[in-house]
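ok so dumb question maybe but i'm new to this and my supervisor (M.) told me to 'just get the structure for 3'(2'),5'-bisphosphate nucleotidase' and walked off. so i did the thing. is this what she meant?? sequence i used:
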Amino acid sequence: MEEDKYAKELEVAVRVVHVACALCGRVQERLLATSNDHVLSKDDDSPVTVAEDFSVQAIISWLLSEIFGVQNVSIVAEEDIETISNDGSAGLLEAVVNTVNESLASASKYGLQSPETTLGTSEVLEAIARCNSTGGPRGRYWVLDPVDGTLGFVRGDQYAVALALIEDGKVVLGVLGCPNYPVKTEWLNYHYQDHQTMPQSSLVTPDAGGKGCVLYARRGSGEAWLQSLVDGEKMLEWPNRARLIRVSSIDDPALATLCEPVERANSNHSFTAGLAHSVGLRKQPLRVHSMVKYAAIARGDAEIFMKFAKCGYKEKIWDHAAGVVIVEEAGGVVTDAGGRPLDFSKGMYLEGLDRGIIACSGVTLHEKFIAAVYASWDSSNL
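this is what came out, is it supposed to look like this??
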């Protein structure tokens, strides 16, 4: 039956993202409480910690391969094995192996099987190395951003674990783990208003039990779901009292909230601000790290997300795949700035992207922004 298609894949994806979120939460707490030596510099100058790409990538790769079979699992992911397997990374690799085994030991809490014995260095490296797909228009492959928003991660702010499944170039399901995104919207406001002045170690919601959630959706279902992260010693119950989420019904620009990236390096804030003003947005933008911006649209906490990359920057499929399908199934609209759907069939990058990306809670707002782009593009300095 059509409604059962991808049911197992979606359930497994949600469970493994829960495992990854638990790992990240533990390591972020340690990172903020103590100095941490395991910080590298990526090509884009964003810090990467041991909790981020390597450990999460190894865990998700290993779990998917165990459940579906190594021969049936193909993964497009951000990191390659070269960074961690060179001679100068022995200490980092040891830390990754320890983190992976610590996390997999508690996999049963999430309804998954732990390895019979602890994984060795070679097994962890093999799991990371298996994430070597380059995507494309044919076949089935997973798309993973182990931790999206590394800067938010090390600052104790927002970040996301993003996992999507693509078949024949189309995103068929997406899961977004948002460990610091409070379940209740009013706590997001609390966090956002105070995080500029609070010490990093104090970045928690008023009720820690309501901190963190996982969002997920299957293409064509017309439904997007949210469930809380698992507290303490509780077990993950599927579907864990998940609740349906829908985009906001606001279509008046004066009442709408714009989400935009925190980092200026790869996004043109001045063009976005001019566009927002021309359409009639009056509220202060909500600047959020990572794909949590897509979560904010899907949950109805914001109405618009725009990203116009600076010249030369190419958008990667793992930065958008999971978020796009969740927003669309929650009732939203996501296209490039020319109004065309995003094309995930061209490999690791969103090739042919027209100027930028616009995600809106509904058609009315989306059409106004598309029109505004055409009206103001010639005068921009992108």
